[in-house]
Write a structure and sequence with these properties.
Order of helices and strands: HEHEHHEHEHHE
Number of strands: 5
Shape: globular
Strand order of the largest sheet: 2-3-1-4-5
Oligomer: single chain
C-alpha cells in the first residue's frame, strides 16, 4: 500500500450527481485493493426523474416530487434526507471499517466535516462546470428523445444538481476542504 494511504482507514469521495464519483471510487478501490460503498445503497431519495434501465415508467412519487418543489426546496429536501437517513449510517461505517472508500452526494461537506476531522479519514469532493453536468445528465436521461413533461422534470433535476454543486463549492471553501474539477478527456 502507498505510504500516503497506509495511515488512512477510510476515504470519502463526495460531489454532486454526475460528477464522476463512482468511476473514481471504483478505479481507486481497485488500485488500492480496498472495498467501496455508494451512499445510494444506504437510503434512496426519490431518485432521478427519468426512466431508468429495466423500468418502463417514472414512478409517480418521483414525478410529484420534482413537479411540486422549487429548486431550492429540492436542494433542502435532499440535504435533509442525507442528514437524517444517510449520515448516521455513514458515521457508524466509518467508525467500524478500514480500507474502505465511500462515495456519494450524501457526503455533503457540512454534514461530514466532523468525520473528516477524525483521525485516519480523508475526503475529496469532485466538482464540474454547469456545461459538464448538463451534458452528462442530458445523455443519461435521453433528454433529446423525451416529451415536454419529462424534459421539465429533467431540467428541475439539473437545476438542483447545479445548485448543489454551487453550494457544495461554497461550503468546501468555507471549511478549507479539497475539491477537484472533473476533466473530460
Amino acid at each position: 500500500m502507498h505510504k500516503s494511504t497506509s495511515a488512512t482507514k477510510v476515504i470519502l469521495i463526495g460531489g454532486s450527481s454526475h460528477a464522476g464519483k463512482s468511476t473514481l471510487t471504483q478505479s481507486l478501490a481497485a488500485k488500492l485493493g480496498w472495498n467501496y460503498l455508494s451512499t445510494d445503497k444506504l437510503a434512496r431519495h426519490p431518485g432521478k426523474p427519468w426512466i431508468q434501465i429495466n423500468k418502463k415508467f417514472i414512478p409517480e412519487h418521483v414525478i410529484e416530487h420534482y413537479k411540486n418543489l422549487s429548486v431550492e426546496e429540492l436542494f433542502l429536501d435532499v440535504i435533509s434526507h442525507y442528514q437524517k437517513n444517510v449520515l448516521p449510517q455513514v458515521e457508524n461505517i466509518v467508525r467500524s471499517e478500514e480500507h474502505l472508500i465511500i462515495e456519494g452526494s450524501a457526503l455533503y461537506p457540512e454534514l461530514v466535516k466532523n468525520l473528516v476531522c477524525e483521525n485516519r479519514v480523508k475526503a475529496i469532493w469532485l466538482t464540474g462546470s454547469d456545461r459538464l453536468f448538463q451534458k452528462r445528465i442530458y445523455k443519461e436521461s435521453n433528454f433529446d428523445n423525451v416529451g415536454d413533461e419529462e424534459r421539465y422534470l429533467i431540467q428541475k433535476f439539473l437545476q438542483r444538481t447545479l445548485l448543489y454543486n454551487q453550494r457544495m463549492m461554497e461550503s468546501l471553501e468555507e471549511l478549507g476542504f479539497i475539491s477537484f474539477p472533473f476533466i473530460s478527456v
